[in-house]
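ligand=adenosine monophosphate
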Amino acid sequence: MEIIIFGAPGVGKGTQAKIISQKLEIPHISTGDILREAIKNETELGKKAKEIVQKGDLVPDDIMGGLIKDTISSEECKNGFILDGFPRTLPQAEILTNIFNELGFENPIVIKLSADDDVIIKRLSSRRVCSNCGYITNLSELKDPDTCPNCGAKGTLYQRDDDKEEVIKNRLKIFHESTAPVIEYYKGKAKILDIDGALPMDEVTRQIMEGLGVN
Ligand code: AMP
């Protein structure tokens, strides 16, 4: 199954994509994670992307298109995948259609998660990530703000640089201007599951699995 999970930053795409990836046994491809890893390892891609990602701007479409083509042409993606964070612009959606045609994939299923901006700003500014296991959590859910609830590591929960308030506002502006129109591109081309991302996490997962016809 080829799935795109679509929605504003902070709506829960990464969390849900990880769960679906495990349940369906397909790789989770997060372009944000790939870029953050490249920045950490100071690769050529990382050097090009660093300042752009820190400001919450978009990495150019040609760079992102090449990266996605390499990733989804790989052996591990041949039985499907879930794309998280791509496509983020109309040109990226067109690039993806061309790659799907070349590789012989059917139209993707699009999971669209929505939530109001104020819910998102609140969520993102209290989001924390574990540097040890990659778990994404929220300060409001933590009994002990110093311990990862997933792996138990201490002092590993950190705030992403781009989850600071000014950067969040820029990311949301870009989402509304450049990314939101992508959903129009898929209307009539792909099955779209429209899900309320403000619902509790388990309920969002349940609705996604029901929509995908998997239980
Ligand atoms: P994310 O973790 O998906 O919120 O992505 C973090 C940051 O990586 C974004 O704010 C962008 O700077 C960059 N990024 C991720 N995916 C893309 C994409 N498809 N196109 C352009 N930039 C991207």
